[in-house]
Amino acid sequence: MESVLAVTDFVNEHKLTKDSFGHCEFRGFVEYTSCLRNTFEITTIKFVRNGYNDGDIQLTESGELNSDDFHLDFSTDYQKYAFNTADSSLVISGSSRKMGGKYHVTLKPL
């Protein structure tokens, strides 16, 4: 539940536009850090806000940010989200073999 509330805080803080279903799609900065690889890209970010997949986040491939090297789809079932009030960013935290253990993804709208 904390992760869904973090998304709500992020959307409200940045006054992101919602479609008729409550979903948000916007251009933003993505900073990805792990022990295997790091990248910083601008891409399209989508938040699913209603239904069975409420809280899912999808990143579009861009530059070095690709599905072969990075997780681009996130779920509150597998990752934790936190709203960082200091810089109004959303931080996604998880752990996987693909990323060599713990990883963090920081999102901010353009």
Task: Give an overview of the whole structure.
- The protein is mainly β.
- It has a single domain, classed as PH-domain like.
- The chain is 12% helix and 44% strand.
- The chain has one helix and seven strands; from the N terminus they run H-E-E-E-E-E-E-E.
- Strands 4-3-2-1-7-6-5 form a seven-stranded antiparallel β-sheet.
- Strand 6 and strand 7 form a beta hairpin.
- The protein is globular, with a radius of gyration of 13 Å.
- The termini are far apart.
Class, according to the CATH hierarchy?
Mainly Beta
Q: How many helices does DSSP assign?
A: 1
What integer value in Å does the Rg equal? 13 Å
Across the major sheet, the strand order is: 4-3-2-1-7-6-5
The structural class is: mainly beta
* Count of individual beta strands: 7
Distance between the termini: 27 Å
Order of helices and strands: HEEEEEEE
Tell me what the CATH architecture is.
Roll
Q: How many discrete structural domains?
A: 1
CATH topology: PH-domain like
Q: Give unreliable regions as ranges.
A: none
User: What is the mean predicted local confidence, pLDDT?
Assistant: 95
Helix content: 10-25%
> In this structure, how is the largest beta sheet organized?
7 strands, antiparallel
What spatial form do the alpha-carbon principal axes imply?
A: globular
Tell me the fraction of residues in β-strands, as a range. Answer: 35-45%
